[in-house]
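Build the 3D complex.
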Amino acid sequence: MNRKVGAFAAALAVLAVTFCSAAWADWTLNMPRGVTTISPEIYRLHMLILWVCTVIGVGVFGAMIYAIVTFRKDKGAQPAKFTHNTKAEVIWTTIPALILIALAIPAAETLVKIEDTRDSELTIKVTGFQWGWHYDYIDEGVRFYSFLDRESNAARRLRSGIDPRSVENYLLNVDNPVVVPVDTKVRLLITAADVLHAWWVPQFAVKKDAIPGYVNEAWFTATQTGTFRGQCAELCGMDHGFMPIVVKVVTREEFDEWVAENAAPTMTRSN
Amino acid sequence: MSTTAIDVHAGHHHPKGVWPWIMRWVTTTNHKDIGTLYLTFSLVMLFVGGALAWVIRAELWEPGMQFVQPHVFNQMTTVHALVMVFAAIMPAFAGFANWMIPMLIGAPDMALPRLNNWSFWLLPFATGLLILTFFLPGGAPAAGWTMYPPLVLQQGASLPFSIFAVHLLGLSSIMASINIIVTIMNMRAPGMSLMKMPMFCWTWLITAYLIIIAMPVLAGAVTMLLTDQFFGTSFFSAAGGGDPVMYQHIFWFFGHPEVYIIILPAFGIISQVIPAFSRKPLFGYAAMVYATAAIAFLSLIVWAHHMFTVGMPLGGQLFFMLSTMLIAIPTGVKVFNWTATMWRGSLTFETPMLFALGFLFMFTIGGFSGLMLAIAPADFQYHDSYFVVAHFHYVLVPGALFGAFAGAYYWLPKWTGVMYDEKLGRWHFWLSTIFVNLTFFPQHFLGLAGMPRRIPDYAVQFADFNMMSSIGAFGFGAAQLLFVWIVIKAVRGKGEKAADKPWEGAEGLEWTVPSPAPHHTFDTPPVIK
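Done.
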């Protein structure tokens, strides 16, 4: 018994250390709430199911721990003889079913919203390739490649001797970020040139596979300006870990300026 | 078989000379021998897969690339998964099936002993093929264990080798499954109806059907990869009119039943161990059987929840979300019934029970994260992140592997005739439990914070949790050496002599034969009242 208590205390200590140092190092323990119209909804869904699991967990683990502590042979417990209990079995089949229905309804509602790509105000074609991204603002005529930035790329070589901590936004920075206007429904047309990739920006709660031969749709409406970072999320070979995504959300005016500066003047698509 | 023949055979336990000793194991058709071969092989492979995991965790110890090139890292993740799934966990449970099913149902042997021999002996060769690819130009497979095209088709010489290895591994498990089904259906002792079978036989019977349904599908998928690469077909190439997403559908039609193929036999073992150490019959036996069958059925219609991000139509996403959520119901029934089995029992906590309880707690954690992953909108955040890695390792390590440990400690006295070292067994449990949580619990946080899986290097904000995880992984691996030592001690007969029924509360035919179980048991079938 003492040994078990000791081990339990040790486990608690590990957890405590985890959470305390989390505070010191400004770690993220949870899913980001995000900066789009949909992402807080996904966050709330995540928290809902997490709490449902936690409550069920407290009940189930509580019952297990109670049984372990109480019904011990060394405390003289005599085994009961029962082998089933229809009422209990019906209850613990029905209640989870009801909980699941209660979870499925908000989940389905959010899913329907996520899939509604109508009425977008800006369309960007995103092409993943080994190992970077190409962005094509279809109506604005802005096109560019986006690769891992130089500093990260130097530091990430095998035994480079460069401390990753000395590189700003190590592995999460690119040479040419995507620029989008705030409060604008941006539609992404995602595809790939060679193998599978996936476009993921956690703050947008958007993750969509880039598949050769397919054009997948995704959308987001960013509600605040700033720089948001993500990574390729589908194994795509050697440099899968080195094709980040950076999106700068700017005001409408800044965006218009950026387009004016970067649009290829009279270039036609056939070029 | 005459009595003399049995005596002669018993003498073969210690044949003289190396060659006869080798040939005894190569040609054996005895279910206990073959069970031993399976279990030994899987234990060796646990360390091979574990060594690969150590390379992964060493590289992820801190940000920056310290030890291996990214391509080598990808080989490690790929082969680690393939070895653990096909060469460690599945053969471990096949070993339990071989050793125990005939003894649990009062049969003299497996129904098809020669097939049994062959199903085992394909394994080392198949695994050998897979591991040899490390020495081929371009190295071992590096496209992930899921082998998604088009990436997998960029693989070098290892592609046909790994595909052939998968074919052989599939063949081996299909033959083992046929054998198990035939044995259970035809060789139960008189009076043992299906609904009187020990739970382990039930879970294996259902698993065997799942294997027969799922494995040929995998074989088909990888064969299409092979013809795409070498014979000019374009099943999965969009440029040739094919569809890379179709591969994923076919793969996961195999892949999702596969996770239940791995976990159901562990459910069976837990259902043997918990009643034994609670001194109380399994609660809701019939419900447990139906729940197992329901899980198996549902596992066949949920596959696309592994691919919510491929761009399925809304209706498809809703279907796979809802069907996946349904699995929580029968799984919940199992967990509740195990808990109810302990309720008002008379519990003791020998090592098998400790591992069973570890399973109960930590498998449930994996079940919770599984439920979270089922919620499609949230899955867009979890998918392909470390959250998924944490989830499936909770189900596979403190789930399936702890189930196997529980079974090993439970039946080791029957296999070896001596009690294993209880003190060391407890150490093994506590070290494993602490380190497995240290390894995998922080990975939940990493995933939620946005760390993708299968990356050899990561942004610095992920550094501390990764270091914790690595410490856990090194500790967990080292703790398993303790298990090897415990088993070796028991096999060499070092320890207290085990009674025929070493566990006070254990029930079942296996405890009616001597410990160690003689080479042949139940030549005359027992009669079940």
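Confidence is low (pLDDT under 50) at residues 22-26, 267-271 of chain A.
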